[in-house]
Design goal:
EC number: 2.4.1.-
Strand content: 5-15%
CATH superfamily of the largest domain: Spore Coat Polysaccharide Biosynthesis Protein SpsA, Chain A
GO molecular function: polygalacturonate 4-alpha-galacturonosyltransferase activity
Number of domains: 2
Structural class: alpha/beta
InterPro entries: GAUT, Glyco_trans_8, Nucleotide-diphossugar_trans
Distance between the termini: 134 Å
Keywords: Cell wall biogenesis/degradation, Glycosyltransferase, Golgi apparatus, Membrane, Transferase, Transmembrane, Transmembrane helix
Helix content: 40-55%
Pathway: Glycan metabolism; pectin biosynthesis
């Protein structure tokens, strides 16, 4: 093979002299030394500032310190032992091993004292001073494991304990509900005393009866539709008085207000005596008893017919036919009381009237209510405040939607509303035969399969599609069982103490009682004699 000529050979690369290489290497070493020295200065700065920072954390009371976060920290080890020992103390007590529980508790206190002393002097625990405590606690924890106080046993026992506590809580809730219901249904001695004294006064004072008759004969307002007509159905004298008094005191024209009060035979004389003796800024008060309504009989009224049924009587009055499975509140006979169901017969009670505002006896009036009578109900029968801001107050909460009749006729998500302050157009009521609708549904609930209790569920069925929503400020609910927004209370025209905690009972909610009590004249001689305070 022929070699190329010298002219065609690759040129040889020139090499740098050794002096140049050494110079470059020296420069690089110097640069590296400068960089490392600067990093050392940067790292040393946090070390200087770390001590005061940590001191600040301790001084501020922060319990999580650096030594506790360290995996080798004796403080952390002691803390973990204490947590585990506390769990073992509980199990030892449940196992009736009181001696061992006492030994664990004593060692826990010993370890806590060490931690407390270290925190006080603001220095970490040393291995030397904590070694004995850690060793003693470790021996006790080992002994606990030998006694089968291990994790599996703990879990089983804790689950059993939780189940027991849940059963106890369920039992306590049932008792609380039962006793609360009993307390709510009991008539206070002072209220009973008032009724007795007023009845005695009525029958022993002919002048009082004469005054009542004269007032009744002179009152042409009872059927005058230009007046503001309110109706109350109640057997509670003082509560009815508060409704009338609070309405009168907050009215711009009290002389135009007419109250139609219906009670029962027992309280009839006392009611007449109270509202004859007392005046309420010119407000007219009519008192009747439902026993005088001749049309109110078992052949017309389903509730009265149901009261004659032996099974219904057993359900409400004996309480022994279902082994106590039904809560006591569902078995309250008041739900069959005519004073409760009379709200569905208002056109029959007041045949001459065209518009009425229905008020429960557990309300207080704070504003002038004359504006209710000028509200356009748009052809509806019932004006009420809706309560469906939450799902709790929709139809499916009150009615049994497993029943085909309910499922076929009513939307489960329809908005509920409240009894207690309702505007009723009696002209539309009569035209649409609303009482007949109520009878239809009441007769189909003899076996209590459509709804369980109360007058609201049949009201929701009766006035379905016939209710006009009112501004919520007209009727504020919940003062008898829950906390209510103070702003709502301030703006509310009518405050409703619905629930068991009525303001005239000892179980009433204390912070709401003054709203009701300010309309009670505790200086009244009869109230003082009956120990009202």
């Amino acid at each position: 093979m022929r070699r190329r000529g010298l002219d065609f050979r690759r040129p040889v690369r020139k090499r740098f002299p050794n002096v140049v290489w050494w110079t470059v290497c020296g420069i690089l070493v110097l640069v590296l030394i400068v960089v490392l020295s600067r990093e050392g200065q940067i790292e040393s700065k946090p070390t200087i500032s770390r001590k005061p920072y940590r001191r600040d954390r301790i001084m501020e009371g922060v319990t999580v310190t650096d030594e506790m976060l360290s995996s080798n920290s004796v403080t952390r080890q002691l803390t973990d032992q204490i947590s585990l020992a506390k769990a073992f103390v509980v199990i030892a007590k449940e196992s009736n091993n009181l001696q061992f529980a006492w030994e664990l508790s004593a060692q826990i206190r010993n370890s806590q004292a060490l931690l407390s002393n270290a925190a006080t002097r603001r220095t970490p625990l040393t291995v030397g001073e904590s070694e004995t405590a850690i060793r003693d606690m470790a021996l006790l924890l080992y002994q606990a494991q030998q006694l089968h106080y291990d994790s599996a046993t703990m879990l089983m026992r804790l689950r059993a304990k939780i189940q027991t506590l849940e059963e106890q809580m369920r039992s306590a809730n049932e008792k609380s509900s039962k006793y609360g219901q009993i307390a709510a249904e009991e008539v206070p001695k002072s209220l009973y005393c008032l009724g007795v004294r007023l009845t005695t006064e009525w029958f022993g004072n002919p002048n009082l009866q004469k005054k009542h008759r004269e007032r009744k004969q002179m009152d042409a307002k009872l059927k005058d539709n230009s007046m503001y007509h309110f109706c109350i159905f109640s057997d509670n004298i003082l509560a009815s008085s508060v409704v009338v008094n609070s309405t009168a005191l907050n009215s711009k024209n009290p002389d135009k207000i007419v109250f139609h009060l219906v009670t029962d035979e027992i309280n009839y004389a006392a009611m007449k005596a109270w509202f004859t003796v007392n005046s309420f800024r010119g407000v007219t008060v009519e008192v009747q008893k439902f026993e005088d309504f001749k049309w109110l009989n078992a052949s017309y009224v389903p509730v009265l017919k149901q009261l004659q049924d032996s099974e219904t009587q057993s359900y409400y009055f004996s309480g022994h036919n279902d082994d106590g499975r039904t809560p006591i509140k569902f078995r309250n006979p008041k739900y069959l009381s005519m004073l409760n169901h009379l709200r569905f017969y208002i056109p029959e009670v007041y045949p001459a009237l065209k518009k009425v505002v229905f008020l429960d006896d557990d309300i207080v009036v704070q504003k002038d209510l004359s504006g209710l009578f000028s509200i356009d109900l748009n052809g509806n029968v019932n004006g009420a405040v809706e309560t469906c801001m939450e799902t709790f107050h929709r139809y499916h909460k009150y009615l049994n939607y497993s029943h085909p009749l309910i499922r076929a006729h009513f939307d489960p998500d329809a908005c509920g509303w409240a009894f207690g302050m309702n505007v009723f157009d009696l002209v539309e009521w009569r035209k649409r035969n609303v009482t007949g609708i109520y009878h239809y549904w009441q007769e189909r609930n003899v076996d209590r399969t459509l709804w369980k209790l109360g007058t609201l569920p049949p009201g929701l069925l009766t006035f379905y599609g016939l209710t006009e929503a009112l501004d919520p400020s007209w009727h504020v609910l919940g003062l008898g069982y829950t906390n209510v927004d103070p702003q709502l209370i301030e703006k509310g025209a009518v405050l409703h103490f619905n629930g068991n905690s009525k303001p005239w009972l000892k179980i009433g909610i204390e912070k709401y009682k003054p709203l009701w009590e300010k309309y009670v004249d505790y200086s009244h001689p009869l109230l003082q004699q009956c120990n009202f305070h």
